[in-house]
Design brief:
Structural class: mainly beta
Number of strands: 28
Low-confidence stretches: none
Largest sheet: 6 strands, mixed
Helix content: under 10%
CATH superfamily of the largest domain: Head decoration protein D
């Protein structure tokens, strides 16, 4: 009934290994509660150290340092981790379990307990016999299969997103295509306020990162630019089969204006002969220098704008060259009806209907699509400069 000394080494402690009458072995304890129990001996050395055969090759399995064997119906082999509270109670906190079946082969399961330590064990990772890894996925179908993560964000439609992968600042998820040096990555950088899609010229730290696309924190998307100023900002050439625009109804070019402070959407403008590349308010009837109508009046905005940075073909005021816009018109020169041709008038920035077709040659800005009986007001125009 009493534990007996199995052996001792010279010096202290004495009788360090015990075997009780139940066959339990205690090292540094006379009251083992498990098959083998090792208590801390006050030394800074490892409690258990197992060395392998130095003659083994890297792929050898003939001399396993530690082997856990599962027997019986379930054939499970477990390695457990436990914590002891100050009151002496112990709680199993995590387990690594090996299971096997004819259908699935050998699998390795990782189990932990939720906070509180009183609940059941939960499986959060599994490695299958075919090398598939599941995180929060009991039946992984890919090399890495990640199940539902903790709640992360809710969209405007009430759909909640879980967080499956979290990558910290200046770290990227790398994709390798074939055996070449080119790498593809997705990552975020603090201070740059965006998600970057990158190309790396090689696998090493001195390779160059190129950003073909990025999503800014304000929602703007940049292609070949890291500072997108619009919802979609492309630096380069775009090719598309069909382009459908639903946010505007005219083709405009931004121009610099001589009298910019007086310019309002819907006003008629003409070429300024004194300032190359600039326009001015039209202020004479049948002005053959008429260039178009400032876009944006009546809630109709440009659908397409054209300009070239670094040249005279830039400006701040979009002028409609084709399409439908509203124009300020003056009916004191004659009431305006749909289908009437419009031209410039003596009223600054206003259009009038054409009554002298000979004078109107080269000064027509378009055809009226709505009417104006008297006074001044906005008229919808189909812009056709000629």
């Amino acid at each position: 009934g009493n534990p007996s000394a199995y052996g001792s080494a010279a010096g202290s402690p004495n009788n360090a290994i015990y075997v009780n009458d139940n066959g339990r072995i205690g090292i540094n304890t006379t009251a083992p509660t498990s098959g083998v129990e090792i208590k801390y001996n006050g030394s800074s050395a490892h409690n258990v150290r197992i060395e392998g055969n130095p003659a083994d090759s890297p792929s050898s399995t003939s001399h396993t340092q530690l082997l856990l064997v599962g027997t019986g119906t379930y054939a499970e082999a477990r390695l457990g981790f436990s914590t002891r509270k100050p009151d002496g109670s112990e709680h199993g906190t995590a387990y690594i379990k090996s299971v096997a079946s004819e259908e699935r082969g050998g699998e390795l399961l990782f189990q932990t307990r939720r906070p509180g330590l009183g609940g059941p064990l939960n499986e959060y990772m599994r490695i299958t016999g075919t090398g598939l890894v599941g995180i929060n996925a009991a039946d992984p179908q890919a090399r890495l299969d990640i199940g539902e993560g903790p709640a992360w964000a809710t969209d405007p439609f009430g759909n909640q997103w879980g967080k499956a992968i979290s990558v910290s600042n200046r770290n990227a998820i790398e994709f390798v295509a074939g055996s070449g040096n080119t790498r593809f990555g997705i990552g975020a950088r603090h201070g740059q306020n965006g998600l970057y899609f990158m190309l790396a010229t090689g696998p090493s730290a001195d390779s160059t990162a190129i950003y073909p696309m990025m999503v800014h924190s304000n929602g703007n998307v940049g292609i070949h630019t890291t500072s997108p100023s619009t919802e979609l900002h492309v630096e380069g050439t775009t090719t598309t089969g069909v382009l459908q625009i639903t946010g505007g109804a005219d083709l405009a070019e931004p121009f610099a204006m001589t009298d910019a402070d007086a310019i309002e959407p819907g006003m008629v403008v003409a070429i300024d002969p004194k300032n190359p590349g600039q326009l001015r308010l039209a202020g004479s009837a049948y002005d053959r220098g008429v260039a178009g109508i400032v876009s944006g009046a009546g809630g109709i905005t440009p659908g397409i704008t054209l300009q070239q940075e670094g040249t005279l073909a830039v400006g701040d005021h979009p002028v409609s060259l084709s399409g439908r816009v509203y124009v300020w018109a003056d009916a004191s020169y004659g009431s305006i009806a749909p289908t009437d041709l419009l031209t410039s008038s003596d009223t600054l920035g206003h259009a009038m209907k054409v009554s002298n077709y000979e004078n109107a040659h080269g000064a027509i800005i378009g055809k009226a699509m709505t009417g104006l009986e008297e006074g001044t007001g906005l008229v919808l125009v189909l812009v056709t400069l000629h």
